[in-house]
Structures
1.
Amino acid sequence: QVQLVESGGGLVQTGGSLRLSCAASGRILSSYTMGWFRQAPGKEREFVAAISRNGSIRFYADSVKGRFTMSRDNAKNTVYLQMNSLKPEDTAVYFCSAKFGGLSAVGNYYEHTSYDYWGQGTQVTVSS
């Protein structure tokens, strides 16, 4: 089992940047496909980004493409989400997720039900 802990959230103005981190413990992170999801009040959890085990393949939601970058450092057992040009509609709790195996094991990488492990989330608030 893998434990995930997110950090780096906070309050930022429109156009600003934040870098989220997700530290994993308990297992070797390089064995897991990783994802970032977010959930705003009253809304369902939605896909933000996903990354393959070696970091060579990445997927992004259309709403964040060109603004957000997901990366991973398997030596540090950590994944990141660099968020630039933030908008008020990016306000949400951001969750890190993990699925053992490659992208083929995940299946639909954009569905939160495809992942087995979750962090507690970190709040991101973008003021207008």
2.
Amino acid sequence: QVRIVESGGRLVQPEGSLRLSCTIPTSTFNQGTVGWYRQAPGKQRELVARVSTRHTTVYSDSVKGRFTISRDDDKQAVYLQMNNLKPEDTAVYYCNRLTIPFDWGQGTQVTVSS
């Protein structure tokens, strides 16, 4: 069973920055696109960024230009650098493989508030 672990979330002021980290400990990590998702209170989980095996990145319109996703296949890790954070970025952030996702981790809470 693959146990996904996300970390790095905390309370941050608007316009601040955070870097989230995630490990997906599987020998197949380097074979698939991975992404960061988020779920705000009362809303469905949404995909905000993804990175392919060739390091091609795609972002949702809501985070484009502010967030940067990256991956380290040697560490089986994926990262999300978040800059110029806004209150509407407040959510629990999760990572997972896009195709045939694993069981979800516990996520990491990001709260943007003054």
3.
Amino acid sequence: QVQLVECGGGLVQAGGSLRLSCAASGSIFSIMGWYRQAPGKQRELVASITSGGSTNYADSVKGRFTISRDSAKNTVNLQMNSLKPEDTAVYYCNAHWGIFSNSWGQGTQVTVSS
């Protein structure tokens, strides 16, 4: 059974930093990433990373967020710096496995105060 467990959300002032971590288990994962969903908005991709280490970022977070993974431990991290109030959202870990399967974590709240 595939499981994704996130941690690291919280409340931070604008300009601050947070680090999100996600531990995945139950399969071998190809692409892992982070999405976010703000109230009243659609869930959007924040950043993703392949098993080979190739990364992809939303334009809104480029230069501020860094995604990394430890494939041996099946963990993916998101270092978020220079946080802005518009980064406030529930952040979800996502992992692709098998041919067409993917799973989601339970979500962790990130709140950035101005």
